[in-house]
Amino acid sequence: MIDTHSHILPGVDDGSKNIDETLGIVRQLHEAGFKTLIATPHVLEGASYLSPAEILAATELVRQAVAEEGIPVEILPGAENYIFPDMAKWVRAEKLMTLGNTGKYLLLELPLFEIPHYTDQVFFELQVERVTPILAHPERYKGLIDEPERLLEWAKKGVLFQLDYMSLSGKYGPKSKELAETLLRSDLIHFVGSDAHRVSRREGSNREALQSVQEIVGEGKFRDLTVTNPQRVLDGDAVQSGGEYSQKELVLMKTKEKRKRKGFWARFRS
Ligand SMILES: [Fe+2]
Q1: Helix count and strand count (H, E) for the chain
Q2: CA-based, 20 to 30 A from 235: which of 36, 187, 258, 267?
């Protein structure tokens, strides 16, 4: 399996603090079944900016340490880029690291509480640059928990989605868990990632959450999410985002209705 989201580069963001912690995380992800990890440190415009050259150098250090430890896991460069209006310009100037450094797919994140008004514009401008936006953990944003139909609009425009599989364990709260399940059932997820920042306290938690994903989507689709689609990204090939959107819409609408009804009855109870 290929992990499309991890904070394993030591000392560059809020993830791993040192190489020992990195090796601990890598070992756990290997035990969970990952053979390839894409390192995706947070990249922000401004003071915390990390250049592609810096990411490549840090990735190389981790790659060497992992090889010296004899852990059979490949480490590849990437980034989790925090959205800002000039993203497409920065991509054109090769100032943002793409997933696997192929120049084809950009993993990006939004603020957790508010969807910026320029989000659609950024997606569009990236696509004009022939770069496919991959939104990290859509299930974790309040704006999208409240309005999941926006995800459907973006999916129709060719935006891809990466789920944090730990959302299935409830790590990010019941609403994120619910949206994660809905998105998986609606066939709206294209990749899964650990989003690992440190060694998990409980052994086996990665494997359990991955198992939950597989139980929802089935074996074939699980392989798409963990092997086929991420491999296409690394090869710079197109990822199938197809399928019938009508079915997806149906599942999303049902969830929305359920939420509305809950809100309606809650008024009587209070
Ligand atoms: Fe992350």
Answers
A1: 11, 9
A2: 187
pLDDT value of residue 268: 63
The whole-number pLDDT of residue 253 equals 67
**Gap from CA of 260 to ligand 1 centroid (Å):** 30
List, in sequence order, every residue forming a beta bridge with 39; answer none if it has no partner: 77
Q: Note the CATH architecture for domain 2-269.
A: Alpha-Beta Barrel (3.20)
Query: What spacing in Å lies between the alpha carbon of 40 and ligand 1's midpoint?
Result: 7
Phi, psi values for residue 136, rounded to 5°: -75, 140
Q: How far is the CA of 219 from the centre of ligand 1 (A)?
A: 26
Ligand 1 center to 112 CA (angstroms): 12
Separation between Cα atoms, residue 225 and residue 136, nearest integer Å: 14
Residue with tokens 């709260």: 173
Rounded distance between C-alpha atoms, residue 185 and residue 86, angstroms: 34
Low-confidence spans in the chain with pLDDT less than 70: 241-250, 253-254, 257, 263-270
CA distance 170 to 202: 14
| Predicted local distance difference test score (pLDDT) of residue 40 | 98
Tell me how far the alpha carbon of residue 6 lies from the centroid of ligand 1, in angstroms.
6
